[in-house]
Amino acid sequence: MFGGFLSRRVQLSRPYLSPDALSADPPAADVYCTGSDQVWNSGTNGFVEGPFYLDFAPPGKPRIAFSASFGRPRLPAEEMDEIRPRLRGYAGIGVRESSGVSVLKALGVRECACTLDPTLALPPDKWRELAARGEMPGLPQRYILVYQFNKDPLIDDIADRLAAETGFKVVKIFFFRHGKPRQSQIKVLAPEVESFLWLVQHASFVVTNSFHALAFSSVFRKRFAAVYPKDYGVRLDDYLELVGLKSRHFIPGESGLADVLSDIDYDRVDGILREKRTETLAYVEKMLRA
Question: Is residue 136 domain-shared with residue 259, that is, in the same domain?
């Protein structure tokens, strides 16, 4: 899904197969940056990953973080003790969730800010340009897109109910060939980045438990239903809180199809994101000058 995009669009270092190899001969750079998403989530990583705290960067070189995420609103005390010294060398830290700022403050980090995920820090036109290269012919003109991590029958149930209400087909993205769609679903297998963007851009509705499917639904101004994953749902909740769309969180017994079918005031959402985008890029520039 990503190999072709990376080879076409991204300048990469040589592969490193171990932390020791990375520390022995790190790529030469002016600034070293911890990237975004759940890089600091020891629950998904299995432990505290040294390279994600830039422990391989040469002494004296600036270290920053851009929209990193702990994935959780609180950390156990023993993990905080392990992380605290690893953060002391950072010139500045941007975290994706507001809860991450609270975690950093508890760790004694003063130079930090809540920054947008990079997918939202880019203006929408950049994503429209990429999506235009990923057209997937043969799909229905109007469809409900399902994109999910971890199995959750609620997501498929919501999509089926939407399909019954609207008459639209359900298109579901699968990661593996052996994935079996429901009888009512059209299967799309492992689309590359441009085609994933195209699928979101042309959907009538999106049903998802993925943060980035949620983000791109906003980028392309789509109606959507957000189902929080069992673990690490704080990233979805934080984003919906930011843009004032908590009503799109689908809760069994509380939410109904009317919540999904209702229009979204995207002029207001876009205004919030423009302001936050300006703040995010200003903070990144500040870190780079530190």
Answer: yes
Q: pLDDT tens digit string along 20-48?
A: 999 999 999 999 999 999 999 998 888 99
Give pTM, 2 decimals.
Answer: 0.93
Segment holding 34, helix H or strand E: strand 32-34
CB 46 within 8 A of CB 78: no
Nearest-10 Cα torsion for 32, 38, 42, 43: -170
CA distance 170 to 147: 11
Answer yes or no: do 87 and 145 share one domain.
no
> What angle do helix axes 234-243 and 211-219 make, rounded to 10 degrees?
20
- Please answer whether residues 189 and 171 qualify as being in contact, where contact means their C-beta atoms are separated by less than 8 angstroms: no
Give me the domain span that covers residue 193.
125-270
Residue 131 burial class via C-beta count within 10 angstroms: exposed 0-12, middle 13-18, buried 19 and up: buried
Note whether 249 and 150 are same-domain residues: yes
**What CATH number does the domain containing 156 carry?**
3.40.50.2000
Rounded Cα distance, 255 and 247, in Å = 8
256-284 pLDDT, tens digit per residue, is 899 899 999 999 999 999 999 999 999 99
Domain count, the chain: 2
- Specify which residues 93 forms β-bridges with: 65, 112
Is there a single domain that holds both residue 144 and residue 265?
yes
